[in-house]
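cron nightly-structures :: item 1 of 1
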Amino acid sequence: QVQLVETGGGLAQAGGSLRLSCAASGRTFSNYAMAWFRQAPGKEREFVAAITWRGDKAPYADSVKGRFTISKDSSKNTLYLQMNSLKPEDTAVYYCAAGPPGAGYVIWGQGTQVTVSS
C-alpha cells in the first residue's frame, strides 16, 4: 500500500522554525514529483512548494518565498519542508503529495497541523 506520512508539525512562535518530514512507503518515489500544500481554516488548499524527481525546485508560493525550503532524500524516500521566520498566517494543516511524471499529485498524506502563535 502506497503511503505518505507527514510528521514534524506542532506549535511554534512567530519568528521560529519547524521542519516537516514526509516519509513515503509502499514503493519507491525516486521518479515522482513531490510537493507540499497547506490548508488554513476556512480556506482552500494552496500550493506551497514542489520538487521534481531530479531535484529541480518549482517556484515557491509567494507567501513563503525566502522563508521555506523544500528538499528530499531519495535514499530515505523522505521529503522535507524547512520553515523559518514563521508567521501566524502560516498556521494550517500541511500536506505532502506525490505523483508520477505527467499525472499530477495523485497520492496524498493525512496532513500535519502547524500552529504559529504571535
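cron nightly-structures :: done
The radius of gyration is 13 Å.
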